User: Fold these one by one.
Assistant:
Number 1:
Amino acid sequence: MPSTTTTPSPPPLRPVTGHRGAKGHAPENTIAGLRKAHELGVVWVEFDVKLTSDGVPVLMHDDTLKRTTDGRGDVATKTLSDIRALDAGRWFSPDFAGERVPTLDEAMEFLAKRGMGANVEIKPCPGRDAETGATVARALAARWMGMALPPFVSSFSAEAVAAARDAAPEIPRGLLAEKFPADWRAQLEALGCATFHLDQRRVTDERVRAAREAGFRVLAYTVNEAARARALLDWGIESVFTDYPERIAAR
Ligand code: G3P
Ligand code: MG
């Protein structure tokens, strides 16, 4: 694995990042969700991206279509055209009927027009880690790094982060972790990550301090209670991912 000599870092974040747009209020990973986040005063949003069978990055969390669309089957076996035919809003509420699964470019265009920023979570379908990381990074590098708030990527998949780094080293990278890995520092350094995105249930004051002292910026997901957000931010978490941005005062 080639190593990187530089570690690009995102612009300063806000204390609140909209999770999958504004997941509590609008169907996740849709333009309607990004619009809702904007209406709530959110500047930075997180969303999940995976590839269609024909290699197009689209906003989607699950490997299968069932939960968040009216389709069935695996995302990895569907073309963009297949996925575009689906309704991605009605499952959430009839008010959102007709909402489509956006492409990465559509989401970025929406955000660019509103001066918003994106944490693009690379969420590979099984076996597509490197392909997804490289494709997403190339797409962002080709069109979106000139935004007022340029995007940064993250993933639970170290392989995807490494592929993003190799495809477009200038894009800031973060590593997501459910557990707090013993070798966190070595992993972050090997991948050239500036940010470390932790499950808020595993975050402690000591862990935040250790990561920050090692030079990393620390984020926490998913925080839907104001008091917990306050504690995390007081410990030095830079931003919390939340489904309900309005619950957390400073955004
Ligand atoms: O990127 C933060 C958070 O979204 C990670 O978990 O499952 O909601 O994508 P998940
Ligand atoms: Mg996510």
Note: The longest strand covers residues 44-51.
Number 2:
Amino acid sequence: MDKYNVAIIGAGPGGYVAAIRAGQLGLKTVVIEREAPGGICLNWGCIPTKALLRNAEVLSLFKRGKEFGFTFDNFKADYAVAQARSRKVVERLVKGVEFLLKKNKVDYVQGTARLASPKRIELAPSGQTIEADNVIIATGARPRSIPGLDPDGKNVITYREAVALTEVPESVVIIGAGAIGVEFAYLWHTYGSKVTLVEALPRLVPTEDEEISAELERSFKKQGLAFLTGAKVEGVNWANGVARVTVAAADGKREIEGRKVLVAVGVRPNSEGLGLETLGVRMERGAVKVDARMQTSVPGVYAIGDVTGEVLLAHVASAQGVVAAEAIAGRQPPRLSYVDMPRATYCQPQVASLGLTEAQAREKGHEVKVGRFPFRAIGKAIALGDTDGQVKIVADAKTGEVLGAHMIGPEVTELLGELSLAKLLESTPLELGWAVHPHPTLSEALREAALDVNKEAIHT
Ligand code: NAD
């Protein structure tokens, strides 16, 4: 039997990062994975979609060729090449993760793990047993489905099959306008698919600030991308390979057709089959409950990432992984503030946010001051020819604390790091405004929005 200080179940961005950190801290570490290193994010989620979306962005620019003085004959956009490129990107990064695990002396074991006790893991199908002083559950989550619309992997699909498609569906109904829904809607629409996006809540990206949703809706309309909000899916009928999805919206019922249906209505934790119930690990609606050190109700058993049901994003899983590894090594990692985790969505225009929306800040009783700045007044955005969108900063009127930041526009996801640091250092809009931002860059919109909190923006 192999003995370790830490055994990690799942090698996604939570598990493999926890493993590397544990290795760095001198802990004898093993990571167990049933599929491939890098997990969903690297193999079927964040990374391949970003490669595909890059293709869509380039294609969007080609479509505006005239504006830039480019003309083409027989222009062709080959989606199969885009998809093949995305797989190469994945391959390269998977190799990178394998290298990093080795470099940090982390053992990697292929198999499906089950906890026989808090310190003993049994693997299938090998039957191998691993003993560890501490276990970190990092098993992620899987797509939720809607009753009557169970994915069959061919016609009714999830992101998993969507990423693997080598042809753009001629027409598609996308259910759910969260991150996955809007990213695939932009991608496939740009490649010529007839896309209809259906969202149950009253607006696209409904967890974002209302102004951001409104701006995205305006931009999608301008792009000719069809969407229905406040629309409930009632059922689907298939005839001659075409789905007729019945949707009930405020203005009545209607049928939407698509050759494929992409279900993107959220995910649920992969917490079953691990033996957690038998060990008495506390769970809530399938999510494993953890404390600030990522320890579950059973000492020595930790959990990180989507399986904890906190903010379901790769970088949050990684941050939790570092916390868990450090806690196991006897360090005092800082407490994570989930509301301040950066959130990034990569449709065009991109959406990026952190902290409370304006409505949430008011609901929490804050007296709020808001600063805004549009990209159409930013030189770099005009030079890029990409002027849709704005930066909005929500601050506490009394203390000046930045409560939230909400951005839509070109490359706004790249501006989130600065905000994350600003939150960590408890910077105020005044300080964000005093920080000299390079000119010409898109980051000037952030500075101007911060200055606008006190109505001191320069280029308004
Ligand atoms: P999500 O929770 O982001 O969005 C699901 C959307 O579906 C919500 O807006 C919800 O209101 C809607 N919905 C739910 N039931 C519905 C119904 N019956 N009919 C119509 N709409 C319905 O989930 P997702 O987009 O499936 O993504 C899954 C997870 O992956 C999320 O946690 C997400 O944050 C993450 N993810 C992140 C990124 C990114 O950060 N760029 C990209 C993709 C996925």
Note: The pocket of nicotinamide-adenine-dinucleotide is lined by residues 146, 175-181, 183, 198-201, 206, 233, 264-267, 312-313, 344-346 (CB under 6 Å).
